[in-house]
Amino acid sequence: MTPFWDWEVPFILWLQQGHPAWTPFFRLLTALGNEELVLMLGPLVLWCINKAWGTGVLLLLLGSQGVNTALKELFRVPRPFLTHPQILQLDTPTGWSLPSGHAQNSTALWMYLASKVRRAWFWGVAVLLVVGICLSRPYLGVHYPGDVIVGVAVGLALWGLALLLTPVVTVWAARLRLGWWLAGVAVVGVLLCLLQPYADSVSAIAAVTCGLIGLIVERERVHFDVGGPWQQRALRYVVGLAILMLFWRGLKVVFGFIADEGNTAPYLILRGVRYGILGLWVTLGAPAFFVRLKLAPRSV
Question: What does residue 88 show for φ and ψ, rounded to 5 degrees?
């Protein structure tokens, strides 16, 4: 498939004139949109800064990943370096090209946080980060500019949707009983996995589903509070993140002995279990652990 506009390939080639001098810088920028960012930033906000903001960050990013995977499977646009040999491949992406997940996720994330922080300086930082991450993708040869533009548009739409629906969902959630919430979320999660049986989709859906279940149970049973001195918050973040990374890496190694990577049923099931455990740890296991060890107070 050709790019949207004739100027896209020349634009990528113009950017890549900065290789190799600028490549480390753009690789650093693109790393700010990787999966590791979700694993580090979401828990930081949820456990240490603001519980409501952290919940929004996790759900928005994980939901965005699910939407992005679905759109890529719908359009199936190959990467620029695959169709234009003159474009250098300076990164090792997986999957299709349209829309850019980095552009979409970073836009949704930083616009959401900026709308919560409500400081001019933070808006400036957020916009600069999004622009930098977006430029890094064509520079590395892994996206057309059109992929980035569509990714930004989808990210803005998801951000607006999150702001619009959050008050409605909050009121609705308070009216439903625990059992109905748990059953409904679990059923929707399983159906979505069956409709999108791809590795990235399954991981995002499983994390969102189990993360939601964890949030519901935590709200009813644990009552974790982000308060406390900064030393206590820092300690809980370090401890919680270390265990999260242990689950993330350790389960990957263990499950790797059971099923080879690919879109096979055993691999997808184990991948779903792995990311489901991560979602449960972030929203339920870690908060309960912190309260139990007196690393966090309980809300009154």
Answer: -75, 140
